[in-house]
């Protein structure tokens, strides 16, 4: 994934996380989903058209569509009031593809850090499936916090490292990234469960919005 595209993936995940935890109204997040979704469809198309048929380049660009279509789907649901089930099941497809892309980062591209990042995205999109596709509303806040945290730690931070030439990958860095990913999920889980019975009241609004207006 290009460093520029990754930066804005971080931005839209951050906004969508805030939406899921009830800080940002769904309609207020629609514009960012449109902008980034469009970018994540246009950019890989241009890359593929200019690739000269190079399979590695095409493979690298192909994963961007998964994100682009997700964010455009979110914007569509928000602006039309469509239910979230279709987006939820699409998220299951994205989660499965993300696992494959993660494996390829380890085996084909020798990039353990991005392998871990792809696996983290697989977990996140699977949570989207559970919340939107299966209606597991109790996971709404956990999903929102995990979305927000991954926007920072799998989007903004690695993008900045790439843009400044400071990115490094290897076995040690991959292990560190995996530990950070587990810790972030633990934090999201704790924040999502915080408040006991009152958590159910807090989750109603953002999950209801997610069900009708997107991630």
UniProtKB/TrEMBL annotation:
The entry's keywords: Cell membrane, Membrane, Transmembrane, Transmembrane helix, Transport
UniProt subcellular location: Cell membrane
Listed InterPro entries: AmiSUreI_transpt, AmiSUreI_transpt_sf
Membrane-crossing residue ranges in chain numbering: 6-24, 31-50, 56-74, 86-104, 116-134, 146-168, 174-192
Gene3D superfamilies, alphabetized: 1.25.40.600
Membrane topology summary: Multi-pass membrane protein
Entry's family note: Belongs to the AmiS/UreI family.
Name under which the protein is recorded: AmiS/UreI family transporter
Organism per entry: Leucobacter iarius
């Amino acid at each position: 994934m290009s460093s520029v595209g990754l930066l804005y993936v971080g931005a839209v995940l951050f906004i969508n996380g805030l939406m899921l935890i009830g800080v940002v109204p769904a309609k207020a997040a629609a514009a960012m989903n449109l902008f980034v979704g469009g970018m994540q469809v246009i950019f890989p198309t241009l890359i593929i058209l200019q690739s000269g048929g190079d399979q590695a380049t095409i493979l690298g660009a192909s994963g961007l569509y998964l994100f682009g279509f997700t964010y455009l789907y979110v914007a569509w649901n928000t602006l039309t009031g469509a239910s979230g089930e279709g987006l939820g099941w699409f998220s299951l497809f994205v989660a499965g593809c993300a696992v494959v892309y993660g494996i390829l980062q380890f085996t084909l591209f020798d990039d353990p850090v991005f392998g871990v990042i792809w696996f983290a995205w697989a977990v996140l999109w699977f949570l989207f499936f559970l919340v939107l596709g299966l209606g597991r509303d109790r996971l709404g806040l956990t999903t929102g916090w995990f979305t927000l945290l991954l926007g920072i730690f799998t989007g903004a931070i690695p993008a900045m490292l790439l843009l400044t030439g400071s990115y490094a990958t290897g076995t040690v860095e991959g292990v560190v990234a995996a530990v950070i990913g587990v810790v972030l999920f633990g934090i999201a889980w704790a924040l999502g469960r915080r408040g006991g019975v009152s958590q159910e009241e807090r989750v109603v609004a953002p999950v209801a919005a997610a069900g009708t207006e997107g991630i």
